[in-house]
Amino acid sequence: MKAATQLKQKLLITLILLILARLGIFIPIPGIDHNSLSNNVNNNGLINFLNIFSGGGFSTIGIFALGIVPYINASIMMQLLTKLIPELENLQKEEGESGRQKIGQITRYFTLIWSIIQSIGISLWIKPYVFNWNYQFMIDCIVALSTGSLIVMWCAEIITEYGIGNGSSLLIFQNIISGIPKNLQNYKINIYDKQTIINGCFFFVLFISLLMINILIQECKRKIIIVSAKQLSKINILNPQSYIPLKLNQGGVMPIVFASATMTLPIYFSDNLQTSKINGVISLFLPGHTLYLPAYGFLIIIFSYFYTSLVLNPEDIAENLNKMGASIPSIRPGSDTSKYIKRILDKMTLVGGMFLFMIALIPSLIAKTTNTSLLQGLGTTSLLILVGVAIDTAKQIQTYIISQQYDNIME
């Protein structure tokens, strides 16, 4: 009974904070011509992409328009800096919980800086749609958006610590879900048309297939069996339950997110640069042109390698195995173990990146062959995020219930 009550409290905290973060998007900053702004957003590829993760915040410019994006940017920057700066790496590894708290505090400072920078960019971008734009409006806009971003960051951290699931992921999950009904409004379904019914069945089967492929990519892993000297001395056999799980897609959805965001830049430059020679080169990277798909696939694979290097360090794994007195069968401890794990990771990352590229192309291929963009309303990036967050949250709930049952048994 006690475990059920605690789980209800965690779920209640999570729901309240998610609702709070959602309501803040609909509190608009006054003094803006929102109708003209909304029309511009619909025709802007880069803003449309950011709008997915803000839950429509960029079309309304609400006080929570930046959403969790500055916090995610700051977290990624801290992951990169931790790998590059030895002091931060020692802070994370050697100082335990206090070190993690210090890194968390630095991440919050970076979030504030990122939110101010992005707020300045938004205040300048919406200048044509402001009734009376001046520096006072600019300051008010920056303060409102930055404060909103910090409140959303606070909601994410409270959910992670006292609620269920990862706060940042759940906020993005919520924003994507909120955009699905709006996308579906663009499609009219005639139940008396035979072709419409056939297309509907086809898209339903395709959607389920995409969902299954995404789940497989999220859950697929390579198990590297490890054995300790103590095990070998006693039974002289390997324990298949002792292994290092290496996921096929270590970066999750982030490689597609980074690649998609990068591929919107040629669209932005093409609309804003007036030099014909430069536009001629940039046009090659626009959707439907020669270099778009090769560049998109290349970026997904590159970002897959980049994010895998941030998440996993083969040298750290080899060092930890050595400290535990464990090793991989037939592989010498130390540098050989590190090279072995790196070799496997490189192969898996390449395969995972290619799979991500293939499923990212499916909505575009379907749109070209059937002359409809139904699947593009959701998008593979969004689908990957939804699947990943749903699986992780369900696992956390299951783990929490099992741990509480174990505690009850021990009592």
What's the SSE blueprint?
Layout: H1 2-23, H2 34-42, H3 45-54, H4 57-60, H5 69-84, H6 86-94, H7 96-125, H8 135-162, H9 167-184, H10 194-219, E1 221-225, E2 227-228, H11 229-234, E3 243-247, H12 254-263, H13 265-272, H14 276-282, H15 292-311, H16 314-324, E4 326-327, H17 335-370, H18 380-410
Transmembrane segments: 12-32, 52-74, 109-127, 133-152, 159-177, 197-217, 251-269, 289-307, 348-367, 373-391
Keywords: Chloroplast, Membrane, Plastid, Protein transport, Thylakoid, Translocation, Transmembrane, Transmembrane helix, Transport
Pfam family, one: SecY
Give a description of the structure.
With 411 residues, the chain is mostly helical. The chain folds into two domains: 1-186, Preprotein translocase SecY subunit; 191-378, Preprotein translocase SecY subunit. It is 73% helix and 3% strand. It has 18 helices and four strands. The strands form two sheets. A two-stranded antiparallel ribbon has the order 1-3. Strands 2-4 form a two-stranded antiparallel ribbon. The radius of gyration is 24 Å and the shape is globular. The two termini are 14 Å apart. This is Protein translocase subunit SecY. Component of the plastid Sec protein translocase complex, which is composed of at least SecY, SecE and SecG. InterPro entries: SecY, SecY/SEC61-alpha, SecY_CS, SecY_dom_sf.
